[in-house]
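Box 3.1 A note on notation
Throughout this textbook, protein chains are presented in two layers. The first layer is the amino acid sequence; the second is a token string describing backbone geometry. Keep the layers aligned when reading.
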Amino acid sequence: QVQLVESGGGLVQAGGSLRLSCAASGRTFGNYGMGWFRQAPGKEREFVAAIGWSSGNTDYSNSVKGRFTISRDNAKNTVYLQMNSLKPEDTALYYCTRDAGAVAFRYWGQGTQVTVSS
């Protein structure tokens, strides 16, 4: 069973930074793509960022491009989301995901809350 545990969320003022972490179980972490999604109250869950197994390929939503950076440390089974220049509209529950074979975003964590005050 794959387990994903997010951490690093919290309350920050607009313009501030946070770094989210997601620790994954399993010995083959480096074989899979990872991603981050978020869901704000009353809104649909939306894609934030993704990273391929080799870290060479990354993708971002237009709303976070240039402000957020996804990275991974395969030795630590951990994926990160560095969030800079945070805005109140970034307030959401942030979820970590892991691919499984041809299925993107197959596994999900429980989420970590990010709140940005204006």
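The chain has no helices and eleven strands. The chain has a mean pLDDT of 94.
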